[in-house]
Specification:
304 residues; alpha/beta; Rossmann fold; Maf protein; 2 domains; five-stranded parallel beta sheet; 12 helices; 10 strands; globular
Amino acid sequence: MKIALCGSMEFADGMNSTADALETMGYETYRPAPADEGRIARDPATKGRVMREYFECIDQSDAVLLYNVAKKGIAGYIGGNTLVEASHAFSKGVEIFALHPLPDMSYTDELAAMNPRVLNGDVAGIDDYFDSLPRMHVSSKSPVKLQALGAAMRRAGLPVVPVGYKTQSGVNEQPMTIEETLQGATNRHAHLHTLVEAGVGDYFATIESGNQAFTAALGFRGLSVTIIEQAGGALRHGLDVDIEFPADFAALVPSQYPDYGVLMQQKFGSTLKDPYPYLSGGKLTRAELLEEAAYRVATQLLVR
């Protein structure tokens, strides 16, 4: 699980110590990078870039922790930048924790409306929260799929803790039709059921990525099949078709590479198994596309 810390850089040492404690507890953390705050304050463009970069960290997090300690004579102080980051987290359905009780400030009502969980100085309360959530048993250990499913369920108002398992699809590493992708998803989901016995309120989930050649106008595109199932309850399927793969790029799989993730790593030196930034000029990621696909399936669980 990932936690982004938000607070004034005046308290960077305290935030770093708290982040270290969270990492000792087993969490991954994002922490604001050291910066010349005076320079950023004088340069709106630089400040905007820094803000956008940290929003991306929040988007990838399971929670944010507001490091709100006394400042300017105000207990639990939360400044404007931290308020903006909390608002962004709230809009994305990311859980919000406050290290100390909320301050008495002009925007206290707005902070309270985001319903942050107050820790009263004890970060162990974060463990208590995540321990209370249902588990989502996922038929993959892919960090991208685990992140996408966790974010999708939060946005749907169904927060979970994703847990990954290694399963077999029984199809090619890079499925090349909708039918093969669906078969791979079905096989993985069935295999998952043999590996784990879910508790009451838990979920099973599968995402299988593939491709399909459509008409000449639509071209060769990426796609995904998503299955989300509540233990003992509803099971929902989803099919999502995304962007076109250029013919010269598409032709490299499976002729030279087993799948497009391996292609990106071996041909382009990418650290991620993700062709989508390359195909979209850096505007899309596989995690974002899979989150949207999974979110549409998760919302169907809300309809009886």
